[in-house]
């Protein structure tokens, strides 16, 4: 038997290698041996409503009318936001919106341009 590690997702011992990937036949999880350094980065990955990975400096579009607390107006669908900054927390996008100022948005309400 080979000396392959257990699956990091389901802890199955029946893993096998396929080229540079290790695969778990029970849960279908695929990973590389360098997964030890990538686990901390996976927790900080921010994705938009379509599943695209967001990065600092990206431009996004708001996909839903959003009420703004303390304001009588709302952010309309299709509003473009440039130069976002990713932060930790519930609202994981920090940005400035023309006409509104500094805002914190949830990534589930934006789409990457």
TrEMBL record:
The keyword Hydrolase applies. InterPro entries: YjdM (IPR004624), YjdM_C (IPR013988), YjdM_N (IPR013987). Residues 46-112 form the Protein YjdM C-terminal domain. Residues 4-32 form the Protein YjdM N-terminal domain. One of its GO terms (molecular function) is hydrolase activity. It comes from the Bacteria. Belongs to the YjdM family. This is Phosphonoacetate hydrolase. It comes from Desulforamulus aeronauticus DSM 10349.
């Amino acid at each position: 038997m080979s000396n392959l590690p257990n699956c990091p997702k389901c802890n199955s011992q029946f893993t096998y290698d396929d080229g540079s990937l290790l695969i778990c036949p029970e849960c279908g999880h695929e990973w590389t041996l360098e997964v030890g350094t990538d686990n901390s980065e996976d927790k900080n990955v921010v994705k938009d409503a379509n599943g695209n990975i967001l990065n600092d400096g990206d431009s996004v579009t708001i996909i839903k009318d959003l009420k703004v607390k303390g304001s009588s107006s709302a952010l309309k669908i299709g509003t473009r936001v440039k130069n976002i900054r990713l932060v930790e927390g519930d609202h994981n996008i920090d940005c400035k919106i023309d006409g509104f100022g500094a805002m914190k948005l949830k990534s589930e309400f934006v789409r990457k341009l």
